[in-house]
Amino acid sequence: MALEVPWLFLEGLDRCGKTSQCRRLVSYLEGQGQSAELWRFPDRSTSVGKMISSYLLNTSQLDDRTIHLLFSANCWEKRSLMETKLKSGTTLIVDRYYYSGVAFSSAKGLDFEWCKAPEMGLLAPDLVVFLDISLEKAAERGGYGGERYEQLEFQRKVAQNYKVLHDASWKVVDACQHIEDVEKQLREIVLESVMSCQNGKPLSNLWS
Ligand code: TMP
Protein backbone atom coordinates (compact mmCIF):
# COMPACT_ATOMS: atom_id res chain seq x y z
CA MET A 1 0.00 0.00 0.00
CA ALA A 2 1.33 3.42 -0.95
CA LEU A 3 2.16 5.88 1.75
CA GLU A 4 1.75 9.53 0.88
CA VAL A 5 2.99 11.12 4.03
CA PRO A 6 6.51 11.20 5.33
CA TRP A 7 7.26 10.25 8.87
CA LEU A 8 10.42 10.85 10.70
CA PHE A 9 12.05 10.57 14.01
CA LEU A 10 14.45 12.71 15.91
CA GLU A 11 17.33 11.21 17.81
CA GLY A 12 20.04 12.66 19.97
CA LEU A 13 21.65 12.80 23.37
CA ASP A 14 19.55 13.66 26.40
CA ARG A 15 18.71 17.40 26.54
CA CYS A 16 19.49 18.01 22.87
CA GLY A 17 16.12 19.76 22.49
CA LYS A 18 14.25 17.05 20.60
CA THR A 19 11.00 17.31 22.45
CA SER A 20 10.59 21.07 21.95
CA GLN A 21 11.56 20.77 18.30
CA CYS A 22 9.13 17.88 17.73
CA ARG A 23 6.32 19.99 19.21
CA ARG A 24 7.23 22.92 16.97
CA LEU A 25 7.34 20.70 13.90
CA VAL A 26 3.93 19.24 14.57
CA SER A 27 2.39 22.72 15.00
CA TYR A 28 4.09 23.83 11.82
CA LEU A 29 2.74 20.86 9.83
CA GLU A 30 -0.75 21.35 11.25
CA GLY A 31 -0.55 25.00 10.25
CA GLN A 32 0.19 23.81 6.71
CA GLY A 33 -3.04 21.77 6.77
CA GLN A 34 -1.25 18.45 7.29
CA SER A 35 -2.53 15.92 9.76
CA ALA A 36 0.41 15.37 12.11
CA GLU A 37 1.00 13.86 15.53
CA LEU A 38 3.81 13.91 18.03
CA TRP A 39 4.79 10.53 19.43
CA ARG A 40 7.42 9.85 22.07
CA PHE A 41 9.37 6.82 23.08
CA PRO A 42 9.40 5.64 25.72
CA ASP A 43 5.62 6.04 25.77
CA ARG A 44 5.25 6.21 29.54
CA SER A 45 1.45 5.95 29.48
CA THR A 46 1.28 2.17 28.95
CA SER A 47 1.94 -0.43 31.62
CA VAL A 48 5.27 -1.31 29.99
CA GLY A 49 6.04 2.42 29.76
CA LYS A 50 5.35 2.84 33.49
CA MET A 51 7.94 0.16 34.29
CA ILE A 52 10.43 1.95 32.04
CA SER A 53 9.67 5.29 33.64
CA SER A 54 10.20 3.97 37.14
CA TYR A 55 13.55 2.49 36.04
CA LEU A 56 14.63 5.79 34.48
CA LEU A 57 13.66 7.66 37.64
CA ASN A 58 15.76 5.23 39.68
CA THR A 59 12.79 4.02 41.68
CA SER A 60 13.24 0.47 40.42
CA GLN A 61 16.16 -1.68 39.29
CA LEU A 62 16.18 -3.96 36.27
CA ASP A 63 18.72 -6.14 34.55
CA ASP A 64 20.25 -4.39 31.48
CA ARG A 65 18.79 -6.87 29.01
CA THR A 66 15.38 -6.75 30.65
CA ILE A 67 15.12 -2.97 30.33
CA HIS A 68 16.31 -3.15 26.74
CA LEU A 69 13.55 -5.64 25.91
CA LEU A 70 10.99 -3.44 27.69
CA PHE A 71 11.99 -0.45 25.54
CA SER A 72 11.60 -2.68 22.52
CA ALA A 73 8.23 -4.02 23.72
CA ASN A 74 7.13 -0.40 24.16
CA CYS A 75 7.81 0.19 20.45
CA TRP A 76 6.11 -3.06 19.47
CA GLU A 77 2.95 -2.31 21.44
CA LYS A 78 2.47 0.84 19.34
CA ARG A 79 3.44 -0.64 15.96
CA SER A 80 -0.02 -1.48 14.59
CA LEU A 81 -1.46 1.91 15.65
CA MET A 82 1.54 3.55 14.01
CA GLU A 83 0.84 1.69 10.77
CA THR A 84 -2.85 2.62 10.88
CA LYS A 85 -2.05 6.29 11.42
CA LEU A 86 0.46 6.41 8.59
CA LYS A 87 -1.85 4.61 6.20
CA SER A 88 -4.62 7.07 7.04
CA GLY A 89 -2.35 9.98 6.07
CA THR A 90 -1.11 11.25 9.42
CA THR A 91 2.51 12.30 9.53
CA LEU A 92 4.21 11.12 12.71
CA ILE A 93 6.98 13.11 14.28
CA VAL A 94 8.57 10.69 16.69
CA ASP A 95 10.72 11.80 19.61
CA ARG A 96 13.18 8.88 19.85
CA TYR A 97 12.61 5.41 18.50
CA TYR A 98 14.65 2.25 18.13
CA TYR A 99 18.05 3.85 17.50
CA SER A 100 17.90 5.13 21.07
CA GLY A 101 17.39 1.54 22.16
CA VAL A 102 20.61 0.39 20.55
CA ALA A 103 22.66 3.53 21.33
CA PHE A 104 21.77 3.60 25.04
CA SER A 105 21.70 -0.13 25.82
CA SER A 106 24.98 -0.84 24.07
CA ALA A 107 26.56 2.01 26.08
CA LYS A 108 26.23 -0.43 28.99
CA GLY A 109 28.31 -2.97 27.13
CA LEU A 110 25.52 -5.01 25.51
CA ASP A 111 26.31 -6.37 22.07
CA PHE A 112 25.08 -4.19 19.19
CA GLU A 113 23.57 -7.05 17.21
CA TRP A 114 21.85 -8.42 20.30
CA CYS A 115 20.31 -4.99 20.89
CA LYS A 116 19.14 -4.68 17.29
CA ALA A 117 17.54 -8.14 17.10
CA PRO A 118 14.23 -7.50 18.96
CA GLU A 119 13.63 -4.38 16.88
CA MET A 120 13.67 -6.23 13.58
CA GLY A 121 10.29 -5.76 11.91
CA LEU A 122 9.39 -2.43 13.48
CA LEU A 123 8.44 0.17 10.89
CA ALA A 124 11.33 2.00 9.26
CA PRO A 125 10.92 5.78 8.98
CA ASP A 126 11.36 7.93 5.89
CA LEU A 127 13.89 10.00 7.69
CA VAL A 128 16.06 10.06 10.79
CA VAL A 129 17.17 13.46 12.02
CA PHE A 130 19.98 13.60 14.52
CA LEU A 131 20.13 16.67 16.75
CA ASP A 132 23.82 17.05 17.36
CA ILE A 133 24.85 18.64 20.63
CA SER A 134 28.11 18.58 22.56
CA LEU A 135 28.12 16.68 25.83
CA GLU A 136 29.00 19.83 27.74
CA LYS A 137 26.25 21.94 26.20
CA ALA A 138 23.65 19.26 26.90
CA ALA A 139 24.80 19.02 30.52
CA GLU A 140 24.32 22.78 30.97
CA ARG A 141 20.62 22.55 30.08
CA GLY A 142 17.94 22.67 32.75
CA GLY A 143 16.91 19.44 34.44
CA TYR A 144 20.05 17.52 33.42
CA GLY A 145 20.87 14.69 35.79
CA GLY A 146 17.26 14.08 36.78
CA GLU A 147 17.14 10.66 35.13
CA ARG A 148 19.31 7.56 35.19
CA TYR A 149 21.23 8.06 31.94
CA GLU A 150 21.90 11.79 32.29
CA GLN A 151 25.56 11.43 33.23
CA LEU A 152 28.42 12.80 31.22
CA GLU A 153 30.47 9.61 30.88
CA PHE A 154 27.47 7.53 29.93
CA GLN A 155 26.32 10.10 27.35
CA ARG A 156 29.86 10.06 25.89
CA LYS A 157 29.45 6.35 25.14
CA VAL A 158 25.96 6.93 23.73
CA ALA A 159 27.38 9.62 21.42
CA GLN A 160 29.99 7.14 20.14
CA ASN A 161 27.30 4.54 19.51
CA TYR A 162 25.20 7.01 17.53
CA LYS A 163 28.27 7.53 15.34
CA VAL A 164 28.39 3.81 14.63
CA LEU A 165 24.65 3.64 13.90
CA HIS A 166 24.70 6.76 11.75
CA ASP A 167 24.34 6.18 8.02
CA ALA A 168 24.39 8.47 5.01
CA SER A 169 20.60 8.82 4.95
CA TRP A 170 20.50 10.58 8.35
CA LYS A 171 20.18 14.33 8.44
CA VAL A 172 22.27 16.00 11.09
CA VAL A 173 21.26 19.34 12.58
CA ASP A 174 23.51 21.33 14.89
CA ALA A 175 21.45 21.52 18.09
CA CYS A 176 23.82 24.08 19.67
CA GLN A 177 22.32 26.74 17.39
CA HIS A 178 19.59 29.09 18.53
CA ILE A 179 16.27 27.27 18.93
CA GLU A 180 14.70 29.20 16.02
CA ASP A 181 17.57 28.29 13.68
CA VAL A 182 17.24 24.62 14.55
CA GLU A 183 13.52 24.89 13.90
CA LYS A 184 14.06 26.55 10.51
CA GLN A 185 16.44 23.81 9.41
CA LEU A 186 14.06 21.10 10.54
CA ARG A 187 11.21 22.65 8.60
CA GLU A 188 13.34 22.65 5.46
CA ILE A 189 14.23 19.00 5.99
CA VAL A 190 10.59 18.04 6.50
CA LEU A 191 9.45 19.93 3.41
CA GLU A 192 12.12 18.15 1.38
CA SER A 193 10.88 14.86 2.72
CA VAL A 194 7.27 15.75 1.82
CA MET A 195 8.39 16.44 -1.76
CA SER A 196 10.23 13.15 -2.02
CA CYS A 197 7.17 11.24 -0.74
CA GLN A 198 4.76 12.94 -3.13
CA ASN A 199 4.33 9.90 -5.32
CA GLY A 200 3.79 7.64 -2.36
CA LYS A 201 6.27 5.35 -0.68
CA PRO A 202 5.63 1.87 0.64
CA LEU A 203 6.01 1.26 4.34
CA SER A 204 9.02 -0.88 5.08
CA ASN A 205 10.37 -2.77 8.05
CA LEU A 206 13.50 -2.11 9.99
CA TRP A 207 16.80 -3.93 9.54
CA SER A 208 15.40 -5.78 6.50
P1 TMP B 1 13.50 10.94 27.02
O1 TMP B 1 14.30 11.76 27.98
O2 TMP B 1 13.66 11.32 25.60
O3 TMP B 1 12.07 10.78 27.48
O4 TMP B 1 14.09 9.45 27.07
C1 TMP B 1 14.23 8.78 28.26
C2 TMP B 1 15.51 8.03 28.35
O5 TMP B 1 15.35 6.72 27.83
C3 TMP B 1 16.69 8.65 27.63
O6 TMP B 1 17.78 8.69 28.52
C4 TMP B 1 16.98 7.68 26.51
C5 TMP B 1 16.47 6.37 27.03
N1 TMP B 1 16.03 5.40 26.03
C6 TMP B 1 16.65 4.14 26.00
O7 TMP B 1 17.57 3.87 26.74
N2 TMP B 1 16.18 3.22 25.10
C7 TMP B 1 15.14 3.47 24.25
O8 TMP B 1 14.75 2.62 23.44
C8 TMP B 1 14.53 4.79 24.30
C9 TMP B 1 13.39 5.11 23.39
C10 TMP B 1 15.00 5.71 25.21
From TrEMBL:
GO terms for molecular function: ATP binding; dTMP kinase activity; nucleoside diphosphate kinase activity. It is an enzyme of class 2 (transferase). One of its GO terms (biological process) is dUDP biosynthetic process. Pathway: Pyrimidine metabolism; dTTP biosynthesis. It comes from the Eukaryota. The keyword Kinase applies. Coiled coil: none annotated. Belongs to the thymidylate kinase family. This is Thymidylate kinase. It comes from Quillaja saponaria. The lineage of its organism: Eukaryota, Viridiplantae, Streptophyta, Embryophyta, Tracheophyta.
